[in-house]
């Protein structure tokens, strides 16, 4: 049984997303409404196409362009939300984002999946599925180290556990069957196996849910901007501008540096922040030499930001004012410190910068 295989990184000519879609359309995949799985040769052909594409920056830039449109439209697409679904076939293309230490835990796939590491690296542990169900415990099988450019695939029902063991964010591309989300039948419970579930988020009625979504969006956009900054393709300047519009101060600075411009705010020095949700209830708390910005949520108070007590007056001001210019933050602090406080407030997701 082939559970997960990785191919070596190759050097290929330019491959754009439209070419990949055309190649997939020529492969004998079942239609999306058919209750059947493709032959192994079809998945192998698709894997070969992705192997050639994922090492090409033109292809990755095309994928990032669609991902940015998805983020702009949804704010925070959860999980492996596809940025592209091939018509008729139902095959889905989605990015996975992996913070340091990020993992979904051991989980099961019943349908084919192709996974490519686009940025940084991942470690993947596979498990012997038949033996695991026989023993009613996870039985390790293989372990893979996958750096950027490596492509793996699953064909038979399989169990694996990817994890980002590095100190930096990783990004993966997932090309998956339309049957991937179907329930797994006729299998006993297996200790240690994660069940598909969404990450627990505040209820949509809680103003804090918008904070969480804003923070997640800016993190993802910044990771994409960092990937774009290392590419030498025509679309990069435009895509970095889109990242700057969707991201936080760190992404705006990265975009400016990549273009060879200044990292200053603007000629007037304006840095106007607006509370992400008008109903957010904020307060200041001082403990020793630390001042914290607290947020009331349906699950109780949350400490979203903590810094040296020298910023106490500025934090109290931010907790009270729904809209303000960083230059108006009070206290015995310098203008540079005011900007640093404003950047921390933006990073927290509690405030967003006015365009």
Can you tell me about this structure?
There is one protein chain. By secondary structure, this protein is α+β, with helices and mostly antiparallel strands. It has two domains: 172 residues, Jelly Rolls, CATH 2.60.120; 146 residues, Outer Surface Protein A, domain 3, CATH 3.90.930. The protein has nine helices and 16 strands. The chain has a six-stranded antiparallel sheet with strand order 1-8-5-10-3-2. Strands 4-9-6-7 form a four-stranded antiparallel sheet, with no helix packed on it. α1 packs antiparallel against α2, α5 packs parallel to α7 and α6 runs antiparallel to α7. The N terminus is likely disordered.
Tell me the layout of helices and strands.
Layout: E1 5-7, H1 17-26, H2 40-54, H3 57-74, E2 84-85, E3 92-98, E4 107-109, E5 113-119, E6 121-127, H4 129-135, E7 140-147, E8 151-154, E9 158-163, E10 170-176, H5 208-229, H6 236-246, H7 249-258, E11 272-275, E12 282-287, E13 290-297, E14 300-308, H8 312-320, E15 323-325, H9 335-347, E16 351-353
Antiparallel strand pairs: 1-8, 2-3, 3-10, 4-9, 5-8, 5-10, 6-7, 6-9, 11-15, 11-16, 12-13, 13-14
Give the gist of this structure.
By secondary structure, this protein is α+β, with helices and mostly antiparallel strands.
């Amino acid at each position: 049984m082939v559970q997960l295989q990785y191919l070596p990184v190759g050097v290929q000519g330019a491959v754009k997303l439209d070419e990949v879609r055309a190649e997939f359309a020529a492969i004998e995949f079942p239609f999306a409404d058919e209750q059947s799985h493709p032959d192994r040769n079809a998945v192998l052909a698709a894997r070969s196409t992705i192997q050639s594409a994922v090492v090409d920056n033109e292809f990755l830039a095309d994928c990032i362009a669609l991902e940015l449109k998805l983020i702009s439209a949804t704010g925070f697409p959860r999980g492996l939300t596809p940025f592209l679904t091939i018509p008729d076939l139902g095959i889905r293309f989605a990015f996975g984002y992996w913070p340091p230490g990020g993992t979904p835990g051991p989980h099961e796939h019943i349908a084919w999946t192709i996974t490519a590491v686009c940025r940084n690296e991942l470690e993947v542990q596979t498990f012997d599925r038949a033996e695991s169900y026989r023993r009613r415990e996870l039985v390790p099988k293989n372990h893979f180290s996958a750096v950027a450019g490596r492509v793996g695939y699953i064909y038979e029902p399989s169990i694996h556990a990817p994890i980002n063991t590095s100190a930096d964010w990783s990004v993966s591309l997932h090309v998956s069957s339309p049957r991937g989300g179907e329930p797994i039948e006729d299998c006993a419970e297996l200790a240690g196996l994660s069940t598909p579930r969404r990450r627990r988020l505040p209820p949509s009625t809680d103003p804090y849910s918008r904070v969480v979504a804003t923070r997640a969006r800016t993190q993802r956009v910044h990771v994409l901007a960092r990937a774009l900054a290392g590419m030498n393709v025509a679309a990069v300047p435009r895509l970095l501008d889109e990242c700057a519009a969707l991201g936080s101060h760190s992404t705006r600075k990265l975009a400016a540096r990549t273009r060879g411009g200044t990292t200053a705010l603007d000629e007037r020095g304006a840095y106007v922040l607006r509370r992400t949700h008008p109903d957010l209830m904020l307060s200041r708390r001082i403990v020793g030499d630390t001042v914290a910005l607290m947020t009331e949520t349906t699950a109780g108070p949350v400490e979203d930001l903590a810094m040296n007590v020298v910023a106490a007056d500025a934090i109290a001001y931010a907790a009270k004012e729904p809209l303000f210019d960083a230059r108006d933050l009070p206290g015995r602090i310098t203008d540079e410190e005011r900007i640093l406080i404003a950047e921390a407030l933006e990073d927290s997701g509690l405030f967003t910068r006015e365009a």
